[in-house]
Structures are given as C-alpha cells and as structure tokens.
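Researcher: Go.
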Amino acid sequence: MKQKKQWYDYLWIFSLTYLILGFFNILFAWLGLLCFFIPLAISVAKGNKAYCNKYCGRGQLFSLVGGRFGLSRKKDIPGWMKSGYFRYGFLVFFFAMFFLMLWNTYLVFAGAKNLGTVVSLLWTFKLPWHWAYHGTLFSDGVAQFAFGFYSVMLTSTVLGFLTMVLFKPRSWCVYCPMGTMTQLICKAKHNAF
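Model: Structure:
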C-alpha cells in the first residue's frame, strides 16, 4: 500500500525555488540560512537527524531527480567517501570556505573591499552574477554575504548532483557538512546523558 504524502515530502520545492530566486535576485540567498539553522536546532533539541531524514529539501530533490526520473547510476558510493577522514576533512574544508566568505563580507562592510558581484562555483570558478543585484537600501556587505552564501549553496548542490549521477540519488547525504555536523551534535548529546 502506498504511503500518503506528508507536507514535508514537498520541501524539495523550497530547494528548487531557492536556487531559482537566487539566480534572479541574490538577496534571496539569505533564505538559505534556514537550511543551516533548522537542522542544527532539530539535532540539539531532539538529539536526532530528523532534518536529514525527513525535512531536507535538497535530499528530496536528489531523490526525485535521481530516483523517480532515473538520472542516477544507482551505484554504491566508494568506501573512501563514507570514511570519517573524508567526511570530517570535507567538513573542515567547508568551514574554511565558509569563514573565508564571512571574512570577505566583513571586508565589504568595513569598506576595505568593493562588492564582488560573482558567484564562485566549486570555490574556483568565478561566474559573473551582476544581473542579480542592482543595489538596495542595505549595505553592500549584505549583498556580499548573499553572493558568498549563494556560492556555497550552489556549489554544494552541484556536488550533490554530481554524486547523484555517479552513485545513488542521495549520495551527497553521506558527506554533507550539515549532516556531519548534526551527527556530531547527536553523538555529543547522547554521550552527555
């Protein structure tokens, strides 16, 4: 018997909408902070990975595109990608890139650097994204954060799609930095009691 769909089964629409909105107006990138704070709050409050298992719109998007639409080879992810060395190493690298983004934002807020209207894909390729920002009442630092944050979100989505195509649909979830952080929080919470 087919299970009835729940409201959270449609959160993939949020992930897709987020990427589209950020393409047209970079300030929508700020909405992505929900994808950072909600998983952490759930893991701290409940001590589980409910966000990853139920509410992650990106994971749902990969399941839909890779599973239902068949754009995945459905192969097992290599063991080295499941290893703690890779997952924690990727988490450290991710944090380094995230803090570099915050540093650039600080520099723009402080007036030491001009606003960069680019999105960095895979932390390497600078894509001009000037059409998505035409100034607002806010400081350029607000836009700088949005460009940097959208870069992080777009890069992680591209990595997720690459691993989805090469391996199983939700292979990104194995090494997702948010998943690794929530797992660490859950372990710490369970070991504390």
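Model: The chain has nine helices and two strands.
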